[in-house]
Amino acid sequence: MESQPASAALTCFLVEDNAVIRENLVATLEEMVDLRVLGHAEDERGALDWLSETHPGCDLLIIDIFLAQGTGLNVLRAASERMPQARRVVLSNYATPDMRQRCFALGADKVFDKSAELEDLLAYCGGLADAAHRDAATRSARS
């Protein structure tokens, strides 16, 4: 069994209430991208509680809009305020043009449709990981 690198290029927090989707997404992201999922929340309150803590190493938040309790839109708004350095991605089954516009207005960097754009999400995350590797190599070369 191959072990996860000690320090992944990216760290991620996931807000998703469906356990099957969440587990499959974590497994796929960690296998296909140099990324480590720090944790997850299943509802708005859990996500807001996590955001109220200090997470200097979190690079990426992946947020579903419709949660068991509350809404990912409030999480997205809070994440934009509390973690402006992190990329904020919405992954939803309801990525309509109007919903995409609302998400961008609340600070989303990208919006992906769960049913049609998972490959695009993986490519986006891979690009972020590659950029993080290049940044680390540049810093290392300057040292």
Structure, described:
It is a single chain. With 143 residues, the protein is of the alpha/beta class. The protein has a single domain (10-142), classed as Rossmann fold, CATH 3.40.50. It is built from 5 helices and 5 strands; from the N terminus they run βαβαβαβαβα. The chain has helices spanning 19-32, 44-52, 72-82, 97-105, 118-142, and strands at 10-15, 35-41, 60-63, 87-92, 110-113. Strands 2-1-3-4-5 form a 5-stranded parallel β-sheet, with helices on both faces. The radius of gyration is 15 Å and the shape is globular. It starts with 9 loop residues before the first strand and ends with a helix.
How would you briefly describe this protein structure?
With 143 residues, this protein is an alpha/beta fold.
What are the defining features of this structure?
disordered N terminus; 5 helices; single chain; 5-stranded parallel β-sheet; Rossmann fold; 19% strand
Mind sketching the topology for me?
Blueprint: E1 10-15, H1 19-32, E2 35-41, H2 44-52, E3 60-63, H3 72-82, E4 87-92, H4 97-105, E5 110-113, H5 118-142
Parallel strand pairs: 1-2, 1-3, 3-4, 4-5
